[in-house]
């Protein structure tokens, strides 16, 4: 282990030892450690142990906890600009750091939307000045998110946008979406689309079915998602553009994604941690914190999503972090806004699937790290020599009760309010810098 000796604290090696390494590809609970120098992974594996380290290293004994890449969240609303009453970059990234999320792809449906290079530049500067973790702008596909005129994808990409989406807005006009996909293909840009037939969804507020009928609430049929997604995939076949389905939540959609992948189309898919761990019955007595878009589905649909995650058909897990203030959630269910916060609880909620034996830990971590990194073309998200030292330490068995008042997000609309969770992040590093450490 050849480590340069430097008297500077800034260049002091940092070693996490006595841990269990896990990532999405190479390491599956391998005993060992990780050595970090100048913001990158210098060495890792069983040989990284106290006896092999130079005396000037800073050593953190992980006591058998897991060491993993920092999580990459491909769908989160961070508030700025225009929604600071719901969230700010400072509060969102503080929550992310506490939850082990080291990279956020920020949604573009802000006010003003991220449809101009100046707004991309604003986000990057605000993230640099006030953020704790990496924040990458996702720019708008259409001007003003109206689904009518294409945004300047080339200029937005040059400004620093890594992907293109209209956030929670679905493009209804197939001609416009075809043009977006064709334009994006020429720039090798990734399109992330929220697939929903808005006319079919209409005024629905939860999943259509027996449970909605018993609650007296209008339903949204599964077909509202599947029809739009099927249209999207046909346009991908026509244009050859890279396409990511932002949120897949039904078996109908899974069938469409499976056929697209079998045909070799450049298609990937994500789902939210909420749809993997909750179902429509959890809404119970009109719990508005569980009013989401897409709505929570039946238990058989949830189980199908988990199986698709385990098999790799679903590539990515997202928090779908969507903070809402008290005024928009403390309303009758039909009138409340959609959305739940999730940056701080995404990992712990996912570990429920590991504890139940439904998904392996390596697959769970891979869907939150390696696959998002591969789709976005990022160097982080993996435990590899030379990779950025975006690393977390977590105890998968540490139990706690979710107390909304202690969450770092500005809004407190967590669907796991007062739930008992297992899995606590103890340390979060971004480029080797400690951005969160459990007290």
From TrEMBL:
GO molecular function: allantoinase activity; dihydroorotase activity; metal ion binding
Stretches assigned to the Amidohydrolase domain: 353-436
Any one GO biological process: pyrimidine nucleotide biosynthetic process
Keyword Zinc: yes
Entry's EC annotation: 3.5.2.3
Keywords: Hydrolase, Pyrimidine biosynthesis, Zinc
GO cellular component annotations of the record: cytoplasm
NCBIfam families, per database record: pyrC_multi
Protein name (record): Dihydroorotase, multifunctional complex type
């Amino acid at each position: 282990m050849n480590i340069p000796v430097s008297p500077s604290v800034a260049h002091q090696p940092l070693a996490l030892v006595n841990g269990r390494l896990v990532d999405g590809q190479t390491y599956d609970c391998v005993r060992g450690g990780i050595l970090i120098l100048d913001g990158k992974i210098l060495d890792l594996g069983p040989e990284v142990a106290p006896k092999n380290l130079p005396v000037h290293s800073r050593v953190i004994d992980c006591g058998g906890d897991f060491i993993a890449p920092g999580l990459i969240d491909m769908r989160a609303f961070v508030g700025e600009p225009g929604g600071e009453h719901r969230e700010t970059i400072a509060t969102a990234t503080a929550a992310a750091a506490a939850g082990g999320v080291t990279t956020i792809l920020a949604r573009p449906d802000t006010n003003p939307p991220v449809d101009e290079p100046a707004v991309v530049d604003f986000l990057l500067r605000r993230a640099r000045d006030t953020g704790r973790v990496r924040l990458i702008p996702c720019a708008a596909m259409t001007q003003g998110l109206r689904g009518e005129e294409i945004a300047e994808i080339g200029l937005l990409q040059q400004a620093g946008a890594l992907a293109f989406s209209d956030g929670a807005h679905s493009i209804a006009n197939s001609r416009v979406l075809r043009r977006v996909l064709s334009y994006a293909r020429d720039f090798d840009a990734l399109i992330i689309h929220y697939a929903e037939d808005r006319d079919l969804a209409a005024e629905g507020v939860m999943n259509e079915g027996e449970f909605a009928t018993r609650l007296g609430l209008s339903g949204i049929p599964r077909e509202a998602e599947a029809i739009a997604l099927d249209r999207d995939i046909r346009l991908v076949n026509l244009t050859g553009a890279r396409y990511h389905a932002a949120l897949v939540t039904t078996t109908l959609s899974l069938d469409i994604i499976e056929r697209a992948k079998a045909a070799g189309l450049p298609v990937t898919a994500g789902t939210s941690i909420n749809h993997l761990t909750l179902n429509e019955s959890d809404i119970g007595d009109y719990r508005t914190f569980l009013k989401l878009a897409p709505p929570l589905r039946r238990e058989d649909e949830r189980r199908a999503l988990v199986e698709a995650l385990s098999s790799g058909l679903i590539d990515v897990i997202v928090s779908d972090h969507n903070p809402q203030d008290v005024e928009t959630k403390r309303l009758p269910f039909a009138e409340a806004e959609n959305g739940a916060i999730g940056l701080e609880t995404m990992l712990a909620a996912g570990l429920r699937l590991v504890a139940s034996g439904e998904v392996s830990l390596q697959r769970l971590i891979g869907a939150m790290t390696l696959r998002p990194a591969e789709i976005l073309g990022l160097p982080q998200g993996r435990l590899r020599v030379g990779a950025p030292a975006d690393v977390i330490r977590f105890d998968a068995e540490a139990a706690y009760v979710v107390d909304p008042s202690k969450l770092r997000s500005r809004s407190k609309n967590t669907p796991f309010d007062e739930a008992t969770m297992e899995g606590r992040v103890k340390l979060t590093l971004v480029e080797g810098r400690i951005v969160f450490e459990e007290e």
